């Protein structure tokens, strides 16, 4: 395992748990304490963590770790993103909010060979308020990237506020995919910040068809800000989602599609 791979694991653990310690990392990474300390010192120099006596924390850093520093091998998110990608075809305008699953979806769209040709013209347009997603797709000449204006949220790297809302309000998408932090049995979706809730709902509303993309762990969870209602908003999740929650959502009128690791899907309602 090289230093970059170790750093990804360290940062993913830090993003998930808020702190790491040297002894645990030595065991997980199968390297010496000196190697772990050097890795932590290097990440601290890049201001990606705060060193402590026995390890590191996020400390008082005023941001969450960017998605590009997190592990991208989550099987559930990959299955969801793959299914969402299969709904996208050439010539579409696709709206994407920020989030780890939408970021993975953007990566998949960027790598799809069927969206590239020899003309040099964009075969797909992606509208996003996510700085991370815009950066991911910037090197893909077959994808036209439209970025909303707005103020960058320090925790999610999403553009929010009146400028974002004004830009997105003038656009129409064929499909939109948005991320959330919580989903109730009644089909109420929530995120951590009220400004993101407004913009995410707007991205969904400006599409002819819109889906929340969220792994099963989000079902039954709740977050601070509820998304304004979006008629017909569907959900794409994975097969780890609690069956009772899936049934309750369908009974409440939410179309739920369940992706499995092999890329197949369960029945929808």
Fill in the keyword field for this structure:
disordered C terminus, 7-stranded parallel β-sheet, Rossmann fold, 3-stranded antiparallel β-sheet, 20% strand, 2 domains, Arc Repressor Mutant, subunit A, 269 residues, alpha/beta
Explain this structure to me?
The chain is an alpha/beta fold and 269 residues long. The chain has 2 domains: 59 residues, Orthogonal Bundle (Arc Repressor Mutant, subunit A); 185 residues, 3-Layer(aba) Sandwich (Rossmann fold). The chain has 9 helices and 15 strands. A 7-stranded parallel β-sheet has the order 6-5-4-9-12-14-15, with helices on both faces. A 3-stranded antiparallel β-sheet has the order 1-3-2. A 3-stranded antiparallel β-sheet has the order 10-11-13, covered by helices on one side. Helix 2 packs across helix 3, helix 4 crosses helix 5 and helix 5 packs parallel to helix 6. The chain is globular. It starts with a helix and ends in a 10-residue tail after the last strand.
Oligomerization:
single chain
Tell how many strands the DSSP assignment holds: 15
Query: How widely separated are the two ends?
Result: 44 Å
Biggest pleated sheet: 7 strands, parallel
* Backbone CA Rg: 19 Å
Strand order of the largest sheet: 6-5-4-9-12-14-15
Q: Which range best describes the helical content: under 10%, 10-25%, 25-40%, 40-55%, 55-70% or over 70%?
A: 25-40%
Here the CATH topology of the largest domain equals Rossmann fold
Helix and strand content put the structural class at alpha/beta
Shape: globular
- H and E string: HEHHEEHEHEHEEEHEEEHEEEHE
Quickly name the level 1 CATH class of the largest domain: Alpha Beta
Number of helical elements: 9
Q: What is the number of domains?
A: 2
Give the second-level CATH assignment, the architecture of the largest domain.
Answer: 3-Layer(aba) Sandwich
- Mean pLDDT across the residues is 88
């Amino acid at each position: 395992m090289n230093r970059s791979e170790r750093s990804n694991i360290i940062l993913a653990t830090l993003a998930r748990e808020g702190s790491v310690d040297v002894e645990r990392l030595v065991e997980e990474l199968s390297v010496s304490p000196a190697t772990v300390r050097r890795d932590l010192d290097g990440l601290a120099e890049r201001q990606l963590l705060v060193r402590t006596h026995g390890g590191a924390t996020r400390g008082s850093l005023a941001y969450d770790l960017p998605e590009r520093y997190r592990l991208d091998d989550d099987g559930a998110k990959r299955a969801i993103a793959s299914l969402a990608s299969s709904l996208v075809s050439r010539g579409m305008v696709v709206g994407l909010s920020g989030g780890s699953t939408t970021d993975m979806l953007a990566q998949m769209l960027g790598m799809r060979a069927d969206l590239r040709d020899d003309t040099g013209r964009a075969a797909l347009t992606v509208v996003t308020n996510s700085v991370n997603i815009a950066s991911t797709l910037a090197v893909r000449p077959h994808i036209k990237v439209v970025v909303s204006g707005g103020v960058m949220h320090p925790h999610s790297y999403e553009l929010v506020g009146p400028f974002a809302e004004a830009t997105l309000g003038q656009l129409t998408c064929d499909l939109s995919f948005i991320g959330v932090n919580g989903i109730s049995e009644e089909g109420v979706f929530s995120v951590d910040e009220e400004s993101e809730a407004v913009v995410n709902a707007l991205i969904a509303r400006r599409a002819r068809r819109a889906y929340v993309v969220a792994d099963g762990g989000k079902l039954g969870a709740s977050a601070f800000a509820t998304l304004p209602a979006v008629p017909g908003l569907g959900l794409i999740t994975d097969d780890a989602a609690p069956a009772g929650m899936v049934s309750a959502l369908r009974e409440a009128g939410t179309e739920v599609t369940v992706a499995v690791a092999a890329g197949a899907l369960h029945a929808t309602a």
